[in-house]
Specification:
Elements (H helix, E strand, L loop, with lengths): L3 E6 L17 E2 L2 E2 H10 L6 E6 L4 H4 L5
Parallel strand pairs: 1-4
Antiparallel strand pairs: 2-3
Length: 67
């Protein structure tokens, strides 16, 4: 059986009230909030694939995430 993780990261962060970028792309300890979420699953041998559901308007931010 394959296990996929879907990380929902399509929000705009309106309630967070940030004017710079959506909150999932804000830095926290030198990594974006989204990177922290991804890292939790990368270390698991149980996970076969990580899928990020994102807003197409946020591709500019997604392209800055390190592999």
């Amino acid at each position: 059986m394959k296990i996929f993780v879907i990380i929902c990261a399509a929000g705009t962060g309106d309630r967070f009230n940030t004017n710079t970028r959506p909150k999932q792309f804000l830095k926290l300890n030198n990594k974006s909030v989204l990177e922290h979420s991804i890292d939790k699953f990368l270390g698991s041998s149980l996970i076969d694939r990580i899928i990020i559901a994102s807003n197409p308007d946020h591709n500019i931010y997604l392209n800055t995430i390190k592999e």
